[in-house]
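About this split. The held-out portion is used to measure sequence recovery: a designer receives only the C-alpha cells and must propose an amino acid at every position. Recovery is the fraction of positions where the proposal matches the reference. Here is one held-out target exactly as it appears in the evaluation file.
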C-alpha cells in the first residue's frame, strides 16, 4: 500500500501536471513494495509507469519534434542546486588502506550485481557517508563511483541550499530528491557539515535544524536507485541521528608510508624516477594528506620538466617539508 504522503504527492503532481514527479513517486511506491517482498505489485506498477512514460514521450515528440529534453540535464531551479560533472577517475587511481578499499569495491560490486540481489529481495548499499580529514579522497571517491558505474555525477550545492534560499530549503531539497528518484545517478552532498553540523552549535539553529530534519526525512524515505554520497571533514560535528540513515559509513584515514609511496609512484608514473629514493621521499611526507602528496609530486615534476633532469629525491623532499611546515 502507498502511504498517505505518497498518495498526496501523486495528487499534487497530477494537479501541477508534473509528469516526471508523478512517475518518480509511483516508482518509489513500487520500490517500497519490492522492499516488502511484494514483487508482483512492484513489477506491475513499474510496467504501468513505463507504458505511460512511453506514450507520454511519443506525445511529447509529436508536439515538439526537434526539441527533445535530455533527461539527465537538470532544468530550471535544479540547475542552480545541482552541478553536473563528468569525471573520468579510475578506481586504481584512488589509494586507500585495504579495509577502506574493499568497502568501496563492495559498493561497486553490489551496484553492478543489483539485479541479482533484487531476485532475493536484497538491495545494494547506496546511501554512503564518507568521513575523514581534508584531502583524503572523499570527493574523488564520488568521481570514481560515477566512472566505474558509468553514471552521471551531480554535486548538490549546499551553499545555495542553506543560505541563498533561507526558509525555502525544504522545497529545494524536495526538488533534489525528486530528481534523485527520477534519474539514477550519483548525488554528492559534499562538505556535508554545512547542513549536518551538530544542531545546537549553529548560530542559526532554527534554520539549520529544519534543513537537517528535512534532509533526514528525505534520505529515509528515498527508495530510488541512485547513490547518495555525503562527505564530511568533521564527522564529530555530525548529529548522531544521521548515522543510522546511511547504509555505510566509511572513514578515510591519513595515509601511511606505504600508501604515500604508492601515491608518489602513481602521480609520477610518466616521469623517469631513477634518481628517486622512494622510501626516503615518502618518509618526508609523513603527516601529509594524499592531496598534499599529489601536489608536491606535481611541483617536483614541473621542476624536472623545466630543468630537463629526472625527478630527484631532494627536490621532492623539499616540497614535502615545505608543505609540512605550512600545515
Ligand atoms: N586517497 C587518494 N588517492 C589518490 N589521490 C588522492 C586521494 N585523496 C586525495 N587525492 C588527490 O587529492 C585531490 C583532492 O582530494 P579530494 O578527493 O578532493 O579530498 P577530500 O574530498 O577528501 O577533501 C584528488 O583529486 C586527488 O588528486
Ligand atoms: Mg572534498
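Reference sequence for scoring:
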Amino acid at each position: 500500500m502507498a502511504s498517505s504522503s505518497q498518495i498526496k504527492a501523486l495528487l499534487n503532481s497530477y494537479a501541477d501536471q508534473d509528469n516526471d514527479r508523478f512517475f518518480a513517486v509511483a516508482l518509489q511506491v513500487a520500490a517500497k513494495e519490492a522492499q516488502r517482498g511484494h514483487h508482483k505489485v512492484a513489477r506491475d506498477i513499474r510496467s504501468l509507469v513505463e507504458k505511460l512514460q512511453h506514450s507520454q514521450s511519443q506525445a511529447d515528440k509529436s508536439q515538439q519534434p526537434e526539441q527533445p529534453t535530455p533527461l539527465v540535464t537538470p532544468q530550471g531551479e535544479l540547475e542552480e542546486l545541482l552541478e553536473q560533472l563528468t569525471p573520468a577517475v579510475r578506481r586504481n587511481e584512488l589509494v586507500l588502506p585495504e579495509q577502506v578499499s574493499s568497502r568501496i569495491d563492495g559498493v561497486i560490486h553490489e551496484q553492478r550485481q543489483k539485479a541479482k540481489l533484487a531476485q532475493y529481495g536484497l538491495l545494494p548499499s547506496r546511501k554512503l557517508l564518507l568521513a575523514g580529514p581534508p584531502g583524503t579522497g572523499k570527493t574523488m571517491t564520488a568521481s570514481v563511483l560515477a566512472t566505474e558505474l558509468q553514471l552521471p555525477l551531480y554535486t548538490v550545492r549546499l551553499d545555495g541550499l542553506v543560505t541563498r534560499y533561507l526558509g525555502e530549503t525544504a522545497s529545494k531539497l524536495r526538488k533534489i530528491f525528486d530528481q534523485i528518484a527520477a534519474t539514477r545517478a550519483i548525488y554528492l552532498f559534499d562538505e556535508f557539515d554545512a547542513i549536518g553540523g551538530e544542531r545546537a552549535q549553529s548560530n542559526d539553529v532554527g534554520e539549520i535544524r529544519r534543513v537537517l530534519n528535512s534532509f533526514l526525512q528525505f534520505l529515509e524515505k528515498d527508495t530510488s536507485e541512485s547513490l547518495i554520497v555525503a562527505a564530511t571533514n568533521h564527522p564529530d560535528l555530525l548529529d548522531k541521528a544521521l548515522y543510522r540513515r546511511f547504509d555505510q559509513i566509511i572513514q578515510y584515514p591519513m595515509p601511511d608510508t606505504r600508501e604515500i609511496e604508492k601515491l608518489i609512484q602513481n602521480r609520477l608514473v610518466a616521469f623517469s624516477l631513477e634518481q628517486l629514493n622512494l622510501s626516503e621521499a615518502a618518509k618526508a611526507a609523513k603527516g601529509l594528506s594524499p592531496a598534499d602528496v599529489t601536489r608536491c609530486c606535481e611541483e617536483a615534476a614541473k621542476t624536472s620538466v623545466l630543468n630537463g633532469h629526472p625527478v630527484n629525491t631532494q627536490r621532492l623532499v623539499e616540497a614535502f617539508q615545505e608543505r609540512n611546515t605550512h600545515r
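Annotator remark: Residues 212 and 225 are 22 Å apart (CA to CA).
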